[in-house]
Amino acid sequence: MMNAACEVCEFNTASDLKKLGGISGKYDYTIALAGNPNTGKSTVFNALTGLRQHTGNWPGKTVTRAEGSFSYRDKTFKLVDLPGTYSLMSDSEDEEVARDFVLFGKPDVTVVVVDAARLERNLSLVLQILEITTNTVLCLNLMDEARRHGIAIDLRTLSRDLEIPVIATSARSKEGISELITAIHTMATHGNTVKKHLLTDIPDDTGEAIEELTANLQRLDPDLPNTRWIALRLLENDQGIIRALQQGNTAPGLHSELDDILNKAKNYRSSLDGHYQDDIAEAMYSKAARLVKDSVSGNASQRAFRMDRAIDNIVTHRIWGFPIMFLLLGAVLWTTIIGANYPSQMLSTLLLDTLYPWLKNGAETLHFPWWLSGFLIDGVYLATAWVIAVMLPPMAIFFPLFTLLEDFGYLPRVAFNLDRVFKTSGAHGKQALTMSMGFGCNAAGVVATRIINSPREKLIAIITNNFSLCNGRWPTQILIATIFIGVLVPKPWSGTVSVLAVVGIVVLGIAFTFFTSWLLSRTLLKGKSSFFTLELPPYRPPKVWQTLYTSLIDRTLIVLWRAVIFAAPAGAVIWLISNMIIGDQSLALWLIHGLDPAGLFIGLNGVILLAYIVAIPANEIVIPTILMLTTMVIGTTTLGAGAGVLFEGSETEISALLQAGGWTTLTAVNLMLFSLLHNPCSTTIYTIYKETGSRKWTVVATLLPIVYGVLVCLAVTLIWHALS
Amino acid sequence: MKHLGLLQKGETAVISGILHNCPAEIRQRLLDLGFVKGTRVRIENISPLKDPVAYRIHHTQISLRREDASYIEIEINENEE
Ligand SMILES: Nc1nc2c(ncn2[C@@H]2O[C@H](COP(=O)(O)OP(=O)(O)O)[C@@H](O)[C@H]2O)c(=O)[nH]1
Ligand SMILES: [Mg+2]
């Protein structure tokens, strides 16, 4: 085994390796990273490029192509990390990105990353790729796991049988990466001289059809690459390939001959009566089984997975499965809520109590006009500082915890448990995964819906993602729950009751997800739940410290970026509307008074509505905006710092202020409900538009939650008044 | 003749094919996942609401809904545990 000191030694090949990260430019070679889902492609990608592409122990973690680069021995390599795929034979949407790149992207080298402990399943894809190109390197990853399971693989034999280089790696600990680089380099510069086809077990009639079509295609155009693969695809009536052939990939004079070939393929298809599909798949799996028999010893299927089975028996248990799910959700929320308190306080002391007066004084010393210092410091700076103080700690706690669960392999089990419920509501089981992602960030959840193969169910998942309470909305929930709901019960219980109130909102959001999925399946998006297949990956002990560290850095950067992009302009707007005087009062007051009747009617008020309008770019500034606007409305107060100035105060101060502003328990409950049920933030709306490419669905996804919010708040208000 | 949807926990079966009436899209996905003739399959886990079911096949766990599993023909292997 390679030890760590060697990996960093100057004499190691790895020291020739320059990690260029995401820098773009011209490259000598393009390398594709392909493989089944969850085999460590992204981890290999990260090890090679030094980037931090997200990895995770569930199929579908990578949904888009990621590109990076490295250079080695004066050559530069562009590396493309592809989403996982089981096969190149289907025309399913979730595997499209990978399939198209392997087939049409013309990579110089294709690195197939496979799971060493589950070689048999993985080899089927390897064999398909070898049909297309033999400029392939096999990366036998997860060797540490295979060893732990007592599986030994004879690399020499496997490499001889497949006639390609085979490199053993454990990408997470960077073992074998330097050998992989050398192999990529050699393959890129020299190519593979062997061009033999390995798929030989195809039954006669199917085999003959393939031979005949291949010969025809070669005669049609001697320069056509991969004729055998194209023949296979023509037999299966692959429209993409047919289109590619018809459009310019053949000389113009040959159209009638191409039509002959297509007709021939069609005839074969009907005479083979559908079994060619099965024939080819069987040929592939029996070849894989023989390869495994030759080179793998120590079958781990019984012994080594006992641990996995034990865990599965608990987390998917008939009785305990669901309680455990809610308990884990509760534990993550609780840790986030409790843990975020202290760093939040520290940040706000630093940014708001210390830095803010200092900046104000500085501006005064420099004789800034009042409007300039107001605009820049009270408007832009304060909003940005607020977002950082309020958002950074919970995000920095929630996401690493979530990543740990994800790395462990728990998320696919959630989908497994919940599929039945999603099916009943006409949606896809994998929506459980995108819903979970939404608890972190709705925009991320919307992007993740690409793992859902049916367009109808994907749309449902996109539209309902907003009902997963995202991180930006928790601070609002927590604060309001603490100062209005927690105080309704005796002191020792108030903490627990506050957490329960927030969990209640989260569960209500899940209920709305199911309800809306059901509603859409019966109205705008009529249809039944399509088929569902999901691999349950093995449990993998997460690398705790590494995960915490990288996840923390990532989140910090994202929050800071959001603060600058979204909160700063919002801060500017708040300051402007509060200081632009029209007639006898500020624009903000005009707006608040205008919105008040509607707001009060549904148990909120004008301040809250205006705050939600201003906060469309970033939900995290709702509370500070509400506080600032309330101060302005009630006029005199000890708290607050003037028009358009965001501020923070202790919980008692805030509570007193809001009560002076006319708030009751009803207002608080409704605010919590409205925070769950209102339009998605602008980033999410934009992401929805990008993913759906449709204005109509973007509008539906934006307005539907507002309609819910208004109706629910109204209903609660009416019931409340009826009862009291 | 039996289909995979009828397999009981604890039984081992060998796949004998995919039924003719299986929609092309589902057939291809099942084949891609290794539900091909001659493959051994066992129930590994049943979800709390009884559906879907996780099968052990080619040393991995794949979960299918019962209605989709019923497209897969099997022969039950009586001799094994
Ligand atoms: N033990 C171990 N785990 C690994 C190794 N490579 C990747 N992983 C883990 O396997 C999971 C899947 O990795 P990822 O790179 O996201 O796979 P992808 O879906 O193929 O891109 C993650 O939890 C990784 O941390 C390895 O060599 N050893
Ligand atoms: Mg990946």
Number of strands of chain B: 6
Biggest beta-sheet profile of chain B: 6 strands, antiparallel
Most extensive chain interface and residues per partner: A-B, 42 and 38 residues
Radius of gyration from the alpha-carbon trace of chain A, in angstroms: 30 Å
Domain FeoB-type G (chain A): 28-190
Binding site for Mg(2+) (chain A): 46-47, 49-50
Binding site for GTP (chain A): 35-42, 81-84, 141-144
Family (chain A): Belongs to the TRAFAC class TrmE-Era-EngA-EngB-Septin-like GTPase superfamily. FeoB GTPase (TC 9.A.8) family.
Short structural description:
The complex is a heterodimer of chains A (724) and B (81). Chain A has 724 residues and is of the alpha/beta class.
Give the arrangement of secondary structure elements.
The complex is a heterodimer of chains A (724) and B (81).
Chain A: H1 4-8, E1 17-21, E2 29-34, H2 41-49, E3 66-72, E4 75-81, H3 96-104, E5 109-115, H4 119-132, E6 136-141, H5 143-148, E7 152-153, H6 155-162, E8 166-168, H7 177-190, H8 204-220, H9 227-235, H10 239-246, H11 255-272, H12 275-295, E9 296-297, H13 306-315, H14 321-365, H15 370-408, H16 411-424, H17 431-440, H18 442-448, H19 455-464, H20 474-485, H21 491-522, E10 533-536, H22 544-579, E11 581-582, E12 585-586, H23 587-601, H24 606-614, H25 622-634, H26 651-660, H27 665-676, H28 682-692, H29 695-723
Parallel strand pairs in A: 2-4, 2-5, 5-6, 6-8
Antiparallel strand pairs in A: 1-3, 3-4, 7-9, 11-12
Chain B: E1 2-3, E2 12-18, H1 24-32, E3 40-46, E4 53-57, E5 60-64, H2 66-69, E6 72-77
Antiparallel strand pairs in B: 1-6, 2-3, 2-6, 3-4, 4-5
Bound molecules: guanosine-5'-diphosphate and magnesium ion (MG).
